[in-house]
UniProtKB/TrEMBL annotation:
Belongs to the HIBADH-related family. This is 2-hydroxy-3-oxopropionate reductase. Keywords: NAD, Oxidoreductase. Its EC number is 1.1.1.60. Residues 15-173 form the 6-phosphogluconate dehydrogenase NADP-binding domain. SUPFAM superfamilies: 6-phosphogluconate dehydrogenase C-terminal domain-like (SSF48179), NAD(P)-binding Rossmann-fold domains (SSF51735). It comes from Streptomyces aureus. Residues 176-294 form the 3-hydroxyisobutyrate dehydrogenase-like NAD-binding domain. InterPro entries: 6-PGluconate_DH-like_C_sf, 6PGD_dom2, 6PGDH_NADP-bd, HIBADH-like_NADP-bd, HIBADH-related, NAD(P)-bd_dom_sf, Tartro_sem_red. GO terms for molecular function: 2-hydroxy-3-oxopropionate reductase activity. It holds the Pfam family NAD_binding_11.
Length: 304
């Protein structure tokens, strides 16, 4: 590309990426593929090596990663981790330059997002909450749904970057709104997986061809993205984590707590939250959330 051609494109913002787990690694790599310069930090050395191999730059600390960044993307497991990387002398807010934009893509409590935005504003740093749905496959394929909370201008600035990560990207309202919509998403997904798991055990105990049954069910009103994505997990009892029970347990806590705060009843969601919690208590927290099937099998008297 000639210098003239290159100069006709506005310079892409420099990206810092904090958190390179199951979701963060493929997402950061999609930004690199889209032409962004990405400097990353995470606690696992092998994940930093993976980022460098993909064309990114590995940083030795949060401070080093964020100091020159225009945009800082965070993708960590829960509210305590977001607070740990954001606050304190070694955290993002103390080391990012004024005017930087934080895009927090973690799934956390709406209140944590509101508090972060307020603390960042005092430092001249902008924040949007942008949790995602679509799991590991959605991250790899760059087809995530991204629900955003924050200011319109900041959303507009972030949109080209988010377009490299997902397919459905929507501003849902002020700070915390993205997290509220994500909580609702996790409620729907957990209840859907539980219903599918119950159907699988019912079908198998009835002696029906499970592959055929799930194919025809998925072609009608009972069909869903959950069933499409998780059908093979059910059929093969393959519970390698795309999204761990531990994390869905955290999310069910977020949605039940947030719903109680606003006075919304979640009668079925409350039951499924307990089923997720019981699966975790039985030692299945590290498995994919499709392992809710194991809970139904246990309740139905099967050895798992």
């Amino acid at each position: 590309m000639s210098n003239l051609a290159a100069s006709s494109h506005p310079a892409r913002p420099a990206i810092a990426w904090i958190g390179l787990g199951i979701m963060g690694s493929p997402m950061s790599e999609n930004l690199i593929k889209a032409g962004y310069s990405v400097t990353g930090f995470t606690l696992e050395k092998d994940k930093l090596e993976r980022l460098a191999a993909a064309g990114g730059t590995a940083a030795g600390s949060i401070a080093e990663a964020v100091k020159d960044a225009d945009v800082i993307v965070t993708m960590v497991p829960a509210s305590p981790q977001v607070e740990a990387i954001a606050y304190g002398e070694n955290g993002i807010l103390e080391n990012a330059k004024p005017g930087a934009l934080i895009i927090d893509m973690s799934s956390i409590t709406p209140q944590t997002s509101v508090d972060l935005a307020k603390a960042a504003k005092d430092k001249g740093i902008r924040v949007i909450d942008a949790p995602v749905s679509g799991g590991e496959a959605g991250a790899i394929e760059a087809v995530l749904s991204i629900m955003v909370g924050g200011e319109q201008a900041d959303f507009d600035e972030a949109k080209p970057l988010l377009d490299a990560l997902g397919k459905t990207i929507v501003l849902c309202g002020p700070h915390g709104s993205g997290q509220t919509v994500k909580a609702a998403n996790q409620l729907i997904v957990a209840v859907n997986i539980q219903a599918c798991a119950e159907a699988v055990v019912f079908l198998e105990k009835s002696g029906v061809d499970l592959t055929a049954a799930l194919d025809v069910l998925n072609g009608g009103l009972a069909g869903s993205t959950v069933l499409t994505r998780k059908k093979d997990n059910f059929l093969n009892r393959d519970f390698k984590p795309g999204f761990r029970i531990d994390l869905h347990h955290k999310d069910m806590g977020i949605v039940t707590d947030a719903a109680r705060n606003v006075g919304a009843a979640l009668p079925v969601g409350g039951v499924v939250a307990q089923l997720v919690a019981s699966l975790r208590a039985q030692g299945d927290g590290g498995l994919d959330h499709s392992a809710l099937l194991r809970g139904v099998e246990r309740l139905s008297g099967q050895q798992v």
